[in-house]
Amino acid sequence: MTQPGSDLRDATLKAQYEAYPYPERDPKDEKSRLLIGSPSHLREIDYWVFGGTRPSSLPLRALVAGCGTGDGAIMLATHMARAGRPGEVVCIDRSDAALGTAKARAEARALDNIRFIKGSITELDALGLGTFDYIDCCGVLHHLPDPRVALNGLEQLLAPGGGMGLMAYAPYGRTGVYMLQDALEILAPVEEPPKTRLDTAKRVMQALPATAWLRANGNFGDHLTGGDAGLYDLLLNPRDRAYTITDFLQLLDDTGLETACLMEPARYDPSLLVWQPQLKARIEKLSWPEKAALAEALTGNMATHVAYVVRKGRAPARPDCCDPDVIPLMREIPGAELAKQIRLDGTLLFAFGTLEVSIPLPREARTLLPLIDGTRTVGDLAAAMAAQGMSRGKFLRIWREVFQIMESLNRVLLRRDPT
After folding, report:
1. Is residue 246 very low, low, confident or very high in pLDDT (cuts 50, 70, 90)?
2. What's CA 237's distance to the chain center, in Å?
3. Where is the Methyltransferase domain (predicted)?
4. Which domains can be identified in the chain, with CATH numbers?
């Protein structure tokens, strides 16, 4: 897969990431923290891509296509190392500076399951990488000359049954960004060196009128806390487009892919945003893509779309949450801690970025969530609740409701060990 040759914007983009590798990271920080996010969280991959049934002994071969300074790659390789999972994470990027930072971060963690290759996502066929069970392409497609060609090339590298984790910019949550980009196209043209363009952008930000929409947008903070690299990538990136969820789903369809999950699923459920029965009834009649589009339009704060995707017709069949042999897993926050966040009125205040939504839960959720420890099966949970006087029928009804809510929030996932 090779795309047409370089143009001025592509050359400028390449120069940008050599001058200001993004995101700005200090390898010394690896001693004190691991950055966690989506996509490429190992438990998410196991569940959303493979349906929670892929044997943990089976090596996982992962590609991070456009790794930048390494956030997703370092997280995944660290998760695999901690869990004793065999496999490797192959990272490609065309920026020497970005690869240097990512390598230093891996060395700081003594990771031996990760390797780095200089190369372009638009020329993957020349690298002879083979196939992968999982491919991460996070924050890359929207900077490419032809995202469809690039995504199609990645799809061709997927092993049978594999999937990808993608992130693309979304327009409404980035209100103000493209206005400033237009202004800087005039004041800091792409022909100028990166340092000169950055200096101009800083001066513009110092003089930014109070009415500029960017000032009112709290959905991201790269221009405030992301250093020079963050400011440059947000406002000076020479090729930057955003996708509504409708456009994003069309991009997937055009390349033979479909979503296994949008992150978080509940974020795209507009029924959580309204309380009037008349509106809920109208929403119920909508198709899933229409519901997702409505949620995006109503909330206005989606700055990105994160998705796990698979080939069309190959979405994994996930385990029945009421199967007594299935094992519930907390994605990250321990169940006991999550239970403490449930308010006195039985609701969980959940943040979808800058939007907080009250999610009603059965009162028994406070008791159920702390029981989830990654080893107990659903049958074990039922037995524990039976010891407190709960019938099996009531347990199954309540557990299904709790799980479906927590799954939609990407907080509780499932694993079924293969027999």
Report:
1. very high
2. 21
3. 65-164
4. 8-172+241-311 (3.40.50.150), 327-415 (no CATH)
